[in-house]
Amino acid sequence: MQPISPELREWIVAQLAAGHSVAALRASMHAAGWRDDATDAALAEVERAALGGAPAVAAPAEPAGPARTEMPGPDLEGAPLYIDAGDRRVQVLQTVQHPRVVVFGNLLGGEECEALIAAARARLARSLTVETKTGGETLNVDRTSEGMFFERGENETVQRIETRIARLLNWPLEFGEGLQILRYVPGAQYRPHYDYFDPREPGTPTILRRGGQRVGTLVMYLQEPERGGGTTFPDIGLEVAPVRGTGVFFSYDRPDPATRTLHGGAPVLAGEKWVATKWLREREFR
Predict the structure, then answer these.
(1) What is the pLDDT of residue 171?
(2) Residue 94: which H helix or E strand, with range?
(3) What count of other Cβ atoms lies within 10 Å of the Cβ of residue 261?
(4) Residues 148 and 125: beta-carbon distance below 8 Å
(5) What's residue 194's pLDDT?
(6) Which residues contact 3 (CB under 8 A, 6 or more apart)?
(7) What is residue 176's DSSP assignment?
C-alpha cells in the first residue's frame, strides 16, 4: 500500500476543516494517482484520530507567519498573451488566481531541452528530497524519479535559461536554487506534496540559512511521455499536461496548506518524462 505521509494527513485535515466532503477528497486523491486502498486508509486514519480526540496532525511548533507581499511572478497586467522574457517570447496559456498558477508555452526551445537532457543523463541518481528533520537530504518512497542538480550558471545553456526565468518571473537570478533535472520512467511519480519547508520540523532552520523559504516553483517539461505524467494540483482539480517546451509556475506566500499548492507528478504510463525544476527562495541562495 502507498505510504501515508504527514503532508498528506495535514492536507486531509485542512480540506475537511474547509468543508470539503470525503467523497470530494477521495476523487482528488484518485486523480492525483493514489490507489483506492491507500486513499481509504488515509481517510480512515484521520477519521479515527478525530473520533478519538487526538489530533491527526501535530500542532505547529511556530506559526507560519504573515503572507509575503513581495512575490515572484510574471507581469500579467492587461492580460497579455505573450511576455517578453529577453531572448524569448513566452506564451501565457493558462492562469489560476488561488493558488497563483501560470502555464507558459514556448518557454524552452527544442535544442535547449535536448542540451539539458544530454548534460544531465550521465549524472542521474535516485532523486532525494530535503529532510526537514535534519536539514539534509534523504530517499523518499513518494518520489520515484531519477535526478541531478546543475550549479547555478554551470554552463551556457543553464545560464541562458536562468537569465530568462529571472526576467520572466521578476525575481533576482541569485535568489534561485540550482536547476534540477528529473527523469521519470513508466510507473515513476511524485506523490502530492508541498515545496515549502515545514516550519514545525527541527531541521528547517538549517535549511533556511541558505536562502530563506521557498516562495515559488517553475516546472519545465523537456521531454513528454507517451501517456501520463501530468503535474497535478489536487486542491483545485487541475492537471497540467507535460508538453515539451512548456512550463508551469506556482507561488506560495507562506509555508501553509492554505496556499493550496499541494501538487504532484502523476505516474508516467508510457514513455519517459524529463523535467527541469527551478525553486525560488526569498533571498539569495548560497
Answers:
(1) 98
(2) strand 89-96
(3) 25
(4) yes
(5) 95
(6) 38, 141, 142
(7) B
Is the distance from CB of 147 to CB of 127 less than 8 angstroms? Answer: yes
Distance between CA atoms of residues 102 and 93, nearest Å: 8
Please give the order of strands across the beta sheet that includes 238-240: 190-193, 263-265, 231-233, 238-240
- Name which of 74, 22, 65, 129 is nearest 249 in CA terms: 74
Q: Extract the C-alpha cell encoding 31.
A: 486523480
Distance CA 268, CA 197 (A): 26
| Alpha carbons 133 and 202: distance in angstroms, whole number | 5
Q: What is the pLDDT averaged over residues 93-98? A: 96
Give tens-digit pLDDT for 240-284.
Answer: 999 999 999 999 999 999 999 999 999 999 999 999 999 999 999
CA distances from 9 to 3, 38, 111, 128 (A): 11, 12, 42, 21
What is the per-residue pLDDT for 14? 67
DSSP per-residue codes, 36-67: HHHHHHHHHHHHHHHHTT--SSPPPSS---SP
β-strand partners of 278: 218
The contacts of residue 125 (CB under 8 Å, 6+ apart) are 146, 147, 148
The cell numbers describing 217, all together, are: 516553483
185 and 192 Cβ atoms separated by less than 8 Å: no
Determine the Cα–Cα distance for residues 222 and 183; give it in Å rounded to an integer.
Answer: 10
What is the SS3 assignment for 100?
strand
